[in-house]
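Note to self: the last two entries modelled the partners one at a time, which told us nothing about the interface. This time every component goes in together.
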Amino acid sequence: MHIMEGFLPHPWWEIWFAASLPFVAYGVSRIGRMARERRETMPLLAVAGAFIFVLSSLKLPSVTGSCSHPTGTGIGAILFGPWITSVLSTIVLLYQALFLAHGGLSTLGANVFSMGIAGPVVGYLVYRATQRFNLYLAVFLAAALADLATYIVTSLQLALAFPAADGGVLLSLKAFAAVFAITQVPLAVIEGVVSALMFKYILQARSEVLLRLNVVSKMDLVRLQGG
Amino acid sequence: MRGELIALASILIFFVAFLWTSQSGLHEWEGADSKAEGVIEELTGGSYTPWLKPLWEPPSGEIESLFFSLQAAIGGLVIGYFLGYYRRNAGDGN
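The predicted structure of the combined assembly is written out below.
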């Protein structure tokens, strides 16, 4: 979903920087506070960041005949919310921009917005809305939809910057979505499944940290052990 | 166990779908990122040139894969280490 270096003309790259910066800055201050007050959550933060590292390095072939990668931001969004996840995503995107020439520094703002903010916000809201039905299903939906939302936003960002001469933004959006969003559907499903499995391992190892982070409730845990 | 089975089954389905598409028709399996570049070229009639080049590009595909696998390895290590740490602290390891 990376928008490549130099591929966003003025004023769009500045706009997306301005949109992302406050989010990431607030995320950094949240991490600082968490490091002081809840040290026991730090390993979990590392796991959430590493999960994004792993998943976004996998370029998977999709049914449309091209390759794309999952984002891995769903777990972070569920555990720590979208603010902190935006910081984790920024680290990954910087690594890829500097060492792989994937994405870029001028387009970092836009890429952070789609992968680090829009996706996690969707994932977080979906998880909160569905967690009372079934915890694992909620994680699946949150991660899959966070992934898809990221690619839809990328398509929108490109469509806004490159509206079609006749047909405008909407036609461009269709063209970009055909490349990004359709390819992404099967990958989003896989990401959802893998995230749910990851969540299960975290829950098995340290359910009390999840309780303290307010990710799950006592009732959720009782229900899981009951069935 | 049920979670693992579901994950395994969906990855298998995904793999079979991949085999199926690669059997039927010609696909280049290029990155969606570069495909989007093609769309930009089409929409602008080839008039857009990126205004900035990456600071550094991996000199070859092999070196690019090196950094990609490094990325996955770092992530995998951190996940394994901390989940292992958590599990030990959880007591009986279950």
